[in-house]
Design brief:
This protein is an alpha+beta fold. An eight-stranded mixed beta sheet has the order 9-8-10-7-11-12-14-13, with helices on both faces. A six-stranded antiparallel beta barrel has the order 17-18-24-21-20-25. A six-stranded antiparallel β-barrel has the order 26-29-28-27-30-31. Helix 1 crosses helix 2. The chain is globular.
Length: 608
């Protein structure tokens, strides 16, 4: 019998156990692999030891795809020792601190009295506690935010201030924390797409908790008083919040995309905006910067837009600021949205208006209206205006189409079947926790399409975004391009660096795979599909309002994860038929794209 009775649970989450009569020991602990850990006790460890125990817990959770079993009161060689009640309390407190630091929860599954041993005869109250530790990324509101703008507008510096809670010194100190490459540090110019996270936690959810089927161990922690309302959770050098701690502690996670500002990199920005479909786009503007085309792109491509007037302490005078603000408000007010050229749930021709934000109340009002484009006056040196931006992002009503339509199965829905285990019996673990996955091909009615953005570990780890359908742990899929594909099995999966069972449409994550078909060189731009019968076409139909600027035989650039040049073949009303130059691409119906025609950019829907 399996202790985990998961709905469609893959084998990587199944912990095989064998039940037998009570003995003085069980099989020794397996250190090299598996999600089962024996601990004699964890009573008041010092700081260095606590860090070691936490790292060990994180490794066991990784081995068990987000789940682990702790046997407290058992020696490493499997000898059943047991602990007194006070020792159990102290060990569970330590486990609570460990679980809190990695964003996990735990539940006491079983309490087994130790009988028939010399220690037990001396003290009849010695027990062994079996604890189920788990972590999952359920109920996380993830807001994808793109920061775009011209060069020198302080995008990376502002992002460093937002994510790391440190003011800039006027010479780029804050941006050092978000730049990825050496040449970016030298030049101070961003040349690639960077991703950082920070979060908001107004509701103060419980991070580490445990429950017990035994009333003896149902107690309230003495130091469980609510923490101060530190609403913004940042990854800074003072509090040393890690990525995992931010995700675990936040009710809302902001995934911020830093973008290059050079005009020759705008294609890179368009490619990623079409692929990731941001919930909000922030346009950075400063005095004497190039901003008009970036604002136009944001208004076309995203349902929610905000404008940041950065370097507010460097404006030469109030007249320059008023002139710039007036120009921004005029462009926002004169823009008319089109249903083909923008996201869902935005009515055709909806008028927009800009509004200067000078208080938290105004920021909340702007967040509630899709027609409002707030304008913030910020400084990364003094920190002025950043609290208003935080208030806006925390109150932002994300368009439903960009929120995951399906939530992962809650871990509490799992049934721990212990009805057939006698109270005086202890579970005997197998020495090897088999993490192999079944090879059954996914039978989900919506074909899965996972677009690969990066390849790591010699092709064993793929990162990307789910464009349609869902990708499930333990299922077999096909990966490849127009020339060749091969069969794979998804052996591990993470979302927000937390193990999960499924990735749904719009989710950004990573999958660990095993190639069970022929050899193939995996690279960025490939896709993971439910079937090998996937059509890669060179003939596409562009549904957009760019037909007036097109002519037969002309060239357009299509951005949709890929960046391809296409020749205009014919017109059918407002639909533009194009032919990609070179190899074909897989395009699903109504796939989002950005089309560049004569240096003008339009948001479009693609069809085959």
């Amino acid at each position: 019998m399996d202790i985990f009775t998961y709905k469609e649970a893959p084998a990587s989450l199944m912990s095989p156990f064998a039940y037998s009569a009570f003995e003085s020991s069980i099989v020794p602990e397996t250190d090299s692999h598996g999600a089962i850990e024996y601990k004699l006790h964890m009573i008041n460890p010092h700081h260095a030891r606590l860090a070691q125990l936490t790292t060990q817990l994180q490794w066991r959770l990784t081995q068990g795809q987000g789940q682990a079993i702790y046997e407290i009161g058992v020696a490493d060689d499997g000898t059943l020792i047991g602990l007194l009640d006070l020792e159990i309390y102290a060990s569970l407190r330590t486990l609570k601190m460990m679980a809190t630091s990695v964003g996990a929860w735990f539940k006491v599954v079983r309490v087994i009295p130790v009988q028939g041993q010399e220690l037990a005869r001396q003290d009849a109250n010695r027990r062994i506690v079996e604890v189920h530790v788990y972590k999952t990324a359920v109920d996380k509101a993830v807001v994808k935010m793109f920061i775009i703008g011209g060069p020198g507008t302080g995008k990376s510096t502002l992002l460093g201030t937002l994510c790391y809670d440190g003011l800039d010194n006027g010479r780029g100190k804050a941006r050092v924390k978000v730049l990825k490459h050496r040449h970016e540090l030298v030049s101070g110019r961003t040349s690639s797409i960077g991703i950082d996270v920070f979060g908001y936690n107004q509701q103060r959810p419980c991070i580490g908790s445990f429950e017990s089927d035994e009333s003896l161990f149902d107690y309230e922690d003495e130091d469980s008083t609510p923490a101060p309302d530190n609403r913004v959770l940042l990854s800074n050098y003072t509090s040393k919040f890690t990525y995992e701690e931010i995700v675990a502690s936040s009710a809302r996670v902001i995934m911020a995309f830093d973008t290059p500002g050079a005009i020759n990199k705008i294609g890179l920005v368009c490619r990623h905006m079409a692929l990731y479909a941001p919930d909000v786009t922030v346009v950075a503007v400063c005095e004497n910067s190039r901003w008009s085309e970036y604002l136009d792109l944001a208004l076309r491509a995203t349902s929610r837009v905000a404008v940041l007037l950065t370097k507010s302490d460097m404006f030469t005078g109030p007249d320059h600021l008023k002139t710039l603000l007036r120009s921004i408000l005029v462009q926002v007010g004169s823009f008319k949205r089109s249903g083909n050229a923008n996201v869902n749930n935005v009515s055709d021709g909806q008028p927009l208006f800009g509004k200067m934000v000078n208080s938290n109340a105004v920021a909340i009002d702007c967040a509630a209206s899709q027609a409002c484009v707030p304008v913030f006056l910020l400084s990364a040196v003094s920190g002025s205006g950043t609290s208003f931006l935080h208030e806006f992002l925390n109150a932002l009503e994300v368009t439903k189409s960009f929120v995951a339509q399906h939530k992962e199965e809650k871990i509490d829905d799992c049934q721990l079947d212990v009805s057939e285990v006698p109270r005086g019996h202890l579970i005997h673990h197998t020495s090897n926790c088999n993490c192999s996955a079944p090879s059954r091909v996914s039978d989900d009615p919506t074909p899965a399409n996972f677009y690969v953005t990066s390849v790591y570990d010699s092709g064993r780890i793929l990162t990307g975004v789910v464009r349609s359908g869902k990708v499930m742990l333990g299922r077999a899929y096909y990966v490849g391009g127009p020339d060749k594909s091969t069969r794979i099995v998804v052996q591990s999966m993470q979302k927000l660096r937390v193990p999960c069972l499924e990735l749904h449409q719009g989710d950004i994550g990573s999958i660990g795979i095993e190639v069970i078909g022929g050899p193939i060189k995996l690279q960025r731009g490939m896709g993971v599909f439910s079937s090998h019968e996937v059509a890669f076409s060179t003939e596409l139909v562009i549904k957009s309002d760019c037909a007036d600027m097109c002519q037969i035989g002309g060239l357009v650039t299509v951005y949709s994860g890929f960046e391809r040049v296409a020749e205009i073949v014919k017109f059918d009303g407002n639909d533009v038929h194009v032919r990609l130059l070179g190899r074909g691409e897989y395009v699903r119906k109504d796939q989002r794209a950005i089309v560049s025609v004569n240096n003008a950019r339009f948001v479009a829907r693609l069809c085959v």
